């Protein structure tokens, strides 16, 4: 971890403030989630891949964690919101590892983190009920293993098409990691933070929707909630990926397009001192 420059410290503060501001905005309600506070998917997810690309793994982690913590301490605060704070930090860290492409922190670190998150899914009771739910997350893992350091090379290329591709791949991987972390927190919170009544209401809703769509009657397990939400999650995460790609490429153009060196071992901001 290199000593932060004045520009990096300033951008950590800016990104943290931006995350805090966006996180306080209304998000997408989570089916069966807490009724008050924390029961929403925030649009700050779009910022995590961009922060990692621009600041690198460690600075990105700090900015994301700080921003989410600031947002959490502003009332109303919830335990569920506290537990989800690390999601953004992990996503930004992974984005930094993928985009930096150094010897110590590269795609292998990101692959290890996502593999661990995916494996933890199957260690939960819900994972056994919905074994095919993480398909989008395994696609993200496959992208890491297939492209490896090429994602970093694309991001640091002088060709616009490669930069767009690299940003898109990096963004998809990290928004899926954020998603899986949130899923695991949600499952772990059942009966503790998330009431069983909320789960029953969600299962009833799943049954009603399934009947209206002509599907078979669901088994009544919590896995049904995830499987019904899978198409919604796919649209949501792909939309976040597009938004993060647009924002990331725009920032690269403003901050360093044409002035960024071809080295793949340094975050973008540090190159433009």
Give a structural overview.
By secondary structure, the protein is an all-alpha fold. The protein has one domain (6-194, 228-271). Helix content is 69%, strand content 1%. It contains 13 helices and two strands. It has helices spanning 6-23, 47-55, 57-73, 79-83, 85-100, 107-121, 125-129, 135-147, 150-155, 160-188, 196-212, 222-255, 268-271; strands at residues 28-29, 40-41. A two-stranded antiparallel ribbon has the order 1-2. Helix 2 (47-55) packs across helix 12 and helix 10 (160-188) packs antiparallel against helix 12. The longest helix is centred in the C-terminal third of the chain and has 34 residues, at 222-255. The two termini are 17 Å apart. Residues 34-38 and 257-263 have low confidence and may be disordered.
């Amino acid at each position: 971890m290199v000593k932060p420059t004045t520009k990096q410290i300033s951008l950590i503060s800016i990104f943290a403030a931006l995350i805090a501001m966006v996180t306080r905005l209304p998000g997408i309600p989570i089916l069966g989630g807490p009724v008050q506070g924390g029961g929403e998917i925030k649009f700050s997810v779009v910022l995590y891949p961009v922060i990692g690309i621009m600041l690198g793994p460690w600075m990105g982690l700090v900015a994301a964690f700080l921003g989410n913590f600031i947002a959490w301490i502003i009332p109303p605060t919830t335990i569920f919101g506290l537990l989800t704070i690390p999601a953004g930090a992990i996503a930004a860290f992974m984005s930094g590892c993928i985009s930096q492409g150094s010897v110590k922190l590269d795609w292998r670190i990101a692959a290890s983190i996502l593999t661990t998150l995916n494996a933890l899914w199957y260690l939960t009771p819900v994972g056994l009920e919905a074994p095919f739910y993480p398909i989008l997350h395994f696609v993200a893992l496959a992208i890491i293993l297939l492209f490896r350091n090429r994602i970093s090379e694309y991001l640091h290329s002088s060709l616009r098409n490669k930069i767009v591709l690299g940003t898109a791949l990096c963004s998809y991987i990290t928004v899926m990691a954020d998603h899986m972390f949130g899923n695991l927190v949600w499952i772990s919170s059942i009966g503790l933070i998330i009431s069983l009544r909320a789960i029953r209401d969600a299962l009833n809703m799943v049954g009603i929707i399934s009947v209206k769509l002509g599907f078979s009657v669901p088994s009544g397990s919590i896995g049904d909630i995830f499987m019904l939400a899978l198409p919604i999650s796919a649209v949501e995460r792909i939309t976040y990926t597009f938004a993060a790609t647009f924002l990331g490429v725009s920032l690269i153009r403003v901050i360093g397009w044409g002035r960024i060196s071809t080295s793949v071992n340094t975050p973008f901001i540090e190159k433009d001192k």
